[in-house]
Amino acid sequence: MKDITQILDRLSPQVSNAVRGYQDGSPDNVPDTDVHQAYQQVASQLSPEEFQQAAASAYDKMTPEERAQIAQYLRSHAEQNGIPKSYLPPPQTAATDPGALASATAEVHGQDTNMLQDMFAPNGMFSSPIAKAALLGITAFAAQRLTNRF
């Protein structure tokens, strides 16, 4: 991922902070509020295809174990958010196929642009560090797609 933080600094300090945290490999150093705000600012501006590509890029950088954890997390929170589990790949599939997980994530995002971050951040606090890392990765790759428009 190229360094896009100078462009992002002019647009939003939260987006810049989120991307910088992702690039530095230190998602724990990015405040939850910055991740939320950055995600809201960039994800809603992408087409469904761009969002899915950003998610696929983020998941491709994760280990198979991390992708399996994300899939399990999504499946465990899906029904309480009105999403049939059949939309989501089982952890074994997500571990070996980041595209399947990205497609499911895009489907969740397409139903409600805030649902994914609500699932990952109940009550305003990230309940899973891996969920925070996934949302941060999607945000960073989404921001990169937006800066390519400039």
Helix content percent band:
55-70%
Cα end-to-end separation = 16 Å
Based on helices, strands and strand pairing, what is the structural class?
mainly alpha
**Residue fraction in strands:** under 5%
Radius of gyration: 14 Å
How is this structure best summarized?
This protein has 150 residues and is an all-alpha fold.
Fold and architecture overview:
With 150 residues, the protein is an all-alpha fold. It is built from nine helices and no strands.
Task: For this entry, give a set of tags.
150 residues, mainly alpha, 0% strand
Topology:
Blueprint: H1 5-11, H2 13-24, H3 32-43, H4 48-60, H5 64-78, H6 91-96, H7 98-111, H8 115-120, H9 129-147
Helix pairs in contact: 1-2, 2-3, 2-9, 3-9, 4-7, 4-9
